[in-house]
Design goal:
Elements lengths: L7 E3 L4 H11 L3 E4 L5 H6 L7 E4 L9 E4 L3 E5 L4 H6 L1 H6 L1 H8 L4 H6 L2 H5 L12 H6 L28 H8 L2 E6 L2 E6 L19 E7 L5 E8 L10 E9 L6 E2 L8 E2 L1 E9 L6 E2 L1 H7 L6 H14 L10 H17 L3
Parallel strand pairs: 1-3, 2-3
Antiparallel strand pairs: 4-5, 5-8, 6-7, 6-8, 9-10, 10-13, 11-12, 13-14
The structure holds flavin-adenine dinucleotide and iron/sulfur cluster (SF4).
Flavin-adenine dinucleotide (FAD) binds next to strand 2, helix 2, helix 6, helix 7 and strand 8.
Length: about 350
Amino acid sequence: MMRLPKFDYRVPRTIAEAVKIIAGAGPEAQFVAGGTDLYPNMKRRQQTPRTVISVMRLPELNRVTGDKGQGLVIGASVTLTDICENQIIKRDYPVIAGAARTISTPILRNMGTIGGNLLLDTRCNYYDQNYEWRKGINFCLKKDGDVCWVAPGSSKCWAVQSSDLVPVMVAIGAKFRLVSTLGERMIEAAGFYNDDGIDYLKKRPDELLVDIHLPPTNGWRASYQKLRRRGAFDFPVLGVAAYVRYGPASGNEVSTGSDSDRVLNVDDARIVLGGIAPSPIEVSEASQALIGQPLTEDHIQAAAEACYNKARPLDNTDFVMNWRKQMAREYTLRALRELL
Ligand SMILES: Cc1cc2nc3c(=O)[nH]c(=O)nc-3n(C[C@H](O)[C@H](O)[C@H](O)COP(=O)(O)OP(=O)(O)OC[C@H]3O[C@@H](n4cnc5c(N)ncnc54)[C@H](O)[C@@H]3O)c2cc1C
Ligand code: SF4
């Protein structure tokens, strides 16, 4: 049986108290929300904080406010089950509720939070193992070792960003609010993830993720498709988030005769691949294949081909990497066809 190491557990009731505790405890401290990622990591001795600070009793982090007109603000400690069941999220941001529904299992979604999901540790077959297993291969670069077993010549860790909500947040242009004793800042989801399996976030360890800001839904739609072996609870080994916004009807449309036949062109588009690299990958060539065009099968095929070309999965998660690369095309087709 794997046991947790000893640690101090703190439960602050205000944001000010939470950031003060972590600033005082230094690098040996870490926040915890549902613990569905952190506690297994602690049992495997991948992360070993001496002080663990719960963010579940902070009222600001447990709220959902706003709507599709003004944009939605979701507190970081809102559970995935609440995300799936929230009436406004289901009605106005179905892509968020849909992607959350694919995460792990109902029991884990009762505990796991949206914030914890967006800050998930990166994953790799050589890392997500117990201490003895990792010791047996002399560990690896990400923790306790000095070689990457996936790319032995590499000085970089290629562990995979494996959250289902991350590619969706990047695609729809969400922003994250971070608070520390030094102040507050907003950061775009698109710029928040580093292409490095060890240093995978722009967030400093002393910063608390307070809430997630979704943009108003004027004219855009989004979808998410996930590849995994077992539909019941596996992590994504490929996720495709597609976002498309139609332009105002101002000469940017194709007329096919009567007004009712008018086909609007795509004004903005983003396709983001998750589950295949240390950070989500925005495929700008796919966006270019769609922008200024009607969303027809030809342009969807061109965008899917761009995603196939860009996808370079490594051999450190489930499935053969060449097949996962091919699935980038197929899952982009599915994600975009859902928006037709
Ligand atoms: C069997 C199993 C299957 C899973 N399947 C999936 C899956 O299919 N898809 C998927 O995306 N995930 C999956 N997960 C991972 C995990 O359950 C979810 O990502 C969950 O949303 C994590 O949330 P949490 O609240 O439990 O995070 P925690 O474990 O509490 O925290 C995760 C990280 O975020 C930090 N953190 C949390 N909240 C804050 C905050 N407010 N401010 C600053 N730092 C914070 C913690 O310090 C930690 O580093 C799975 C996990 C398991 C065990
Ligand atoms: S990619 Fe390499 S360094 Fe990173 S966790 Fe896997 S084996 Fe370790």
